[in-house]
Amino acid sequence: MGMIITIDGPAGAGKSTVARALADKLGFHYINTGDLYRFITYCAILDNLNVNSAQLMDRLSLKIVEKYIQENSDIDLLSHINSISEKLHSPEVDKKVSFVARHSSVRKNLMSLQRLLVKDGSVVMEGRDIGTIIVPYANVKFFITADEYTRIMRRYKELQEKGYQITFSEVKKEILCRDYIDSRRETAPLTQPEDAIFIDTSHQTVSEVVEEMLEIVRRLKDF
Hints:
The protein is an alpha/beta fold. It has eleven helices and five strands. The protein has a five-stranded parallel beta sheet. Helix 1 packs across helix 11, helix 2 crosses helix 6 and helix 3 runs parallel beside helix 7. The longest helix has 17 residues. It is globular, with a radius of gyration of 17 Å. The two termini are 13 Å apart. The mean pLDDT is 91.
């Protein structure tokens, strides 16, 4: 039977980087659930849809989920998402993804797909409500964060390296807006699972965080 490891936390905490590295170290599948919401957002932008419309986002997300579940091609969906990763992590998507993710209908529609992705094999799944809502039965749960300045600077440097012309102030506004929406949305707000292991990544390298996680996983599960 596979092992499920969840990693939750706010924007800029380093979830994606450490989750991917941890999955590589363990030989597990890596799943970034945030990219599912980014994909919905990206499709909405392409179709010029109002992301604040719960009805429009419900229809769009349901259409996408039904397509991939009916065709039993969830792996194809992940492959497609990975192939357009740069587009999904653009400043334009950054500004709108939290507005899409706050719709309860969108979260409900994506839940079945997210649970389908962990039904077989061992996975490291990261997001904002994985350990609390999607797979509360996970074997090991982590909640990682970092201080506000560190999270903003990480995102700012990431976008600068990708060639986006954006200011530190703009990134700060975007991060704080996402924090506010993620923590206060009515459905599945960002919270630390009661049984999650808390890790502050503010003053640690990626390698240090991953090694800490590996030690915990091995100790708890004799992996």
